[in-house]
Amino acid sequence: MTGAPDRGAAALPSDDPQRRVLHDEVHARPPARLVTPERITHLALRVDAQDRDREARRIAELAAHLGAPVPAPDASYVWLDGGDLRVKWERHTEFTGLTFFRRVGGDAPPGATALDLVPRGFLASMPGETLVAVHVDVRRSGPQDCDDAITTYGDTAVVGSRVGDGAASALTDFRIGDDGFSRIQVLDHALGERQAGRYVQRLCEIETYRMMALLAFPLAREVAAALTAAEARLARLIERMIGPGEADEPRLLDELTRLAAEIERSEAASRFRFGAAAAYYRIVRQRIAELREARLPRVQTIEEFMDRRLAPAMATCESVARRQDELSARIARASQLLRTRVEVALERQNQELLASMNRRAKMQFRLQRTVEGLSVAAITYYGAGLVGYLAKAAGALGLHVQPELAAGVAVPVIALVVWRALRRLHRELARE
After folding, report:
1. What is the pTM (predicted TM-score) of this model?
2. Are 182 and 224 in contact (CB under 8 A)?
3. Distance between CA atoms of 304 and 302, rounded to whole angstroms?
4. Residue ranges of the domains in the chain?
5. Measured distance CA(134)–CA(43) in Å, rounded
6. Looking at the predicted structure, is the pLDDT value of residue 92 above 60?
């Protein structure tokens, strides 16, 4: 007889506190579904930590305006669906991403953007500074229409390619226009709704992470100039180390220590920026690979453009970071070498001091022996005198004792007793 399955037997132990969070992470921030034609505007804002609360209030106000649920105060990702206008808000570690989506008809004017539906003054009230602002125009088009789209960029060099194994074409010039926005055209040849959302998201991320990676480039130039000066200082210090007197070594060590502190301070200030730039650059490379580009006639691909423009800047940042590490190691080696010389000099001085103390101890020992000899003689002298007085006293009592003879006989006895007592005292002190 077959009964119902015993579900109690399949009950699991209690969940790990992080299970749901970790599981849902791979599903977080999914790409939007796009129905061609669409107009998208993507912004990346650098917002200070103290302005995060004000940013959250502005997003809550936008949600109320669109009739969407107000996000939680601690939310880092929000999707606001207002019908004609949809908004995706993402809070990242160093920037905030705002993407506006607007479905348009085939007769929409070329200048229409998603921001036309955003409440007036909303963007101006957002905290932070704009790092990326790009308009994306997604429209249905045949592969043969790419030439007409290229001509809309005028005399500027166009960058683009077929993407998604020929399902679409992407064109841009990576330039900021007079309105403060750069422009990307996505010609939809045969994209699905989810597929279109993924490719638009990748194109926006390429532009965003490219700019985030380049934040390290001006810093790399400043640090490179400082490193050149520091390397020259180190070369001069090493030259002075070749033949300095012992009196100069502590001063050289102090200068090396000060130089090492300056380099460590510079490295601490730039380490995060250079590390972040390398991470952002890896994301850019990954997103480009995910486009699966195929060349368009007479147009360089996005990968070629990044290899020619972005890769050298990232190589400069990497080179400066490596120079910092190498210079820090060279200063450490020079400091260790000089510190060893100072320690050797100190050990030599200590040895000379110990030798001097040893000589003094020997002199004191000899002087002590001399004093002890004099002490034996003095004690013997006074002891013999006492024996003489005793002999005189005995003669006065009628005993036949000659004082001179008694004193003379007592001298060697007293001297031997005193000498033996001092030797015994020395042995006792030596044992202790």
Report:
1. 0.76
2. no
3. 5
4. 28-192, 216-352, 361-431
5. 7
6. yes
